Prior knowledge:
- The complex is a heterotrimer of chains A (218), B (225) and C (243).
- Chain A has eight helices and no strands.
- Chain A has 218 residues and is an all-alpha fold.
- Chain A has a single domain, classed as MetI-like (MetI-like fold), CATH 1.10.3720.
- The model of chain A has no long low-confidence stretch (mean pLDDT 92).
- Chain B has a single domain, classed as MetI-like (MetI-like fold, Orthogonal Bundle), CATH 1.10.3720.10.
- With 243 residues, chain C is an alpha/beta fold.
- Chain C has a single domain, classed as P-loop containing nucleotide triphosphate hydrolases (Rossmann fold, 3-Layer(aba) Sandwich), CATH 3.40.50.
- In chain C, strand 4 and strand 5 form a beta hairpin.
- At the A-B interface, helix 3, helix 6, helix 7 and helix 8 of A face helix 2, helix 3, helix 6 and helix 8 of B.
- Chain C: It comes from Thioclava dalianensis.
Amino acid sequence: MTQFTFWDIFSNLLLATRWTILLSLVAFVGGGVLGLILLFVRIGKTWWLRRIVQGYTELFQGTPLLMQLFLAFFGLGLLGINVSPWAAAAVALILWTAAFLVEIWRGCVDAVPKGQWEASASLGMSYIEQMRHVVLPQALRISIPPTVGFSVQVVKGTALTSIIGFVELTKAGTSLANATYESFTVYGLVALIYFVLCYPLSLSARILERKMNAAHRH
Amino acid sequence: MQYHFDFTWLATYWPVFVDGAWMTVRLIFVGGVLGITLGIYCAWARALGPKILGYPVAVYVELIRNTPFLIQLFFIFFGLPSLGLRMNEVEAAMLAMVINLGAYSAEIIRAGIQATPKGQFEAGSSLAMTPVQTFRHIVLVPALQKIWPALASQVVIVMLGSSVVSQIAVEDLTYAANFAQSRTFRAFEAYFVSTLIYLALAILLRFALMWLGTLIFSTRRRAAR
Amino acid sequence: MPLIDIDALHKSYGETEVLKGIDLHVEAGEVIAIIGKSGSGKSTLLRCINGLETINSGAISVGGEQLVEDELHLRKLRLKVGMIFQQFNLFPHKTAGQNVMLAQQVVKKRRKAEAETKAREVMDRVGLGDKFDSYPDQLSGGQQQRVAIARALAMEPMALLCDEVTSALDPELVGEVLQVVRALAADGMTLLMVTHEMAFARDVCSRVVFMHQGRVHEAGPPSEIFANPKTPELRAFIGMAAA
Lengths: 218, 225, 243
């Protein structure tokens, strides 16, 4: 059996952190794009499409992410696709992220006062023009703090992909803990690395929100 | 290749799911009650307590909110025994849930406390109440009422998050699906069934909490009128 | 043919009927004050003319353009009639100048330079030429409302609907807005305004319409309406307003 020094553990964990970061980025960007598409449906004019997106978000927010990962992993397999844990993890996290972002962003669109819709309508703007020039720019500003805040949930969410066998920070941690019997140190370090990834995001979300409340304009 | 869904195995394995769901319910009951209680104390310390208490509580809240629940669970179950803190898997799961919910609810409740009009505190002290009495009798309940929907959502989130406790062999709802699929090789169906039960639990839990909220707060409000 | 033509207009919110058959004909250049208690339906009437409320029955036309509730027709109608709101509703993410330019560029497809020339002209007209690059939250309520008027004027409407345009203002700011409205009236702009400013209505308007319980209860030139009200409801209302 090989002997692990503290630095061996630490460097191995750091190497695995790449995958946590990469998966977080894929989930966040992919989920953002999908979320944006769904947002337009969610605030659109077709009621039954709106209902479908609403059902989608309720489904993903009302079930455990771990179940979604299992279903993606085994479900994609059923479709005859040979799935790697990486692909299943990416698909599930993108769908999950999109579901939450749609709700966050819809709240931001709703937060734009009714008078803004009326004023732009009275100037003769069409629905698309109102959205494009008046409502979305304002909603976008409001949406930045909660969106940054949600990115923390995405990073933490990637930890669950270890359970379906994707090797990222948490999985590397469990392997090292099993190999070294130094669970306290290993999991302490893993927690610390997650904290270093997440805390700046939490902090900037909070600062952004404070700034916006202090001077909401432009 | 055409896959045929098969749920006939449920006839044999449904008791496993019932037991698993029951464990999940017990976990969130204990985690919810103790977690919110912890959250109230921490929120008080953060919003109104002395700095010497507020600072460590802030560190605790940030540490928990910025690390995955799964790692918190592993740290408690696998890491703490090396400090001589040994517990069984169910105790570890409950402790992790209490600590996790405690941190989140502390932040939520603190927001409720900080939204309390200053006049309420002044009214309390003008009646010669101590700050702690003012908090306990005047501030706390309206603050909880204000943030109750957010708190309820957080409890549901913790319940759904508890699905990872199967990783330390707690026999919860996810464990039931793992068990069933290892015997029947019907993985997709097994997880599908437990997903549906989780969804039902989430809806029921939300209803129960909202009902509890109206029970606690509406009677108080009526009495106050 | 009247500029604004309203025939047998009915409007309900659920069970409650707010407008119970309104007939109103406004000639070009008329300045009309709509007065009445809150809940009498006067704001709703104004919002119907602009298509902000869907109507249950009846007909509205402005400058020959019928109110038809699809996007294309609404757009044509709204190009003929501008609206000023109680709460200003300026776009907070744009400067005063950009507020005035936006719809010109987007809806009228004017080029930027052209829109800016027009914007500067109307901003001067409301006396805010020097506030072109200020954001709404850097302006007082009265200034914001004047920008809102400039924003509507830039679209060169045939008529303006003013929905209690001074009600949200501090008393000392009411005068500057009324002065702008008065100047518009003097220039021959057709104005239809819901207002609580009785002195202003008496001075400036050519006709006063008193609404009561969803109907036009009494109408006529201000001299008659204020000096010689015929119905007890109007007498009661004027008595209240004077007190």
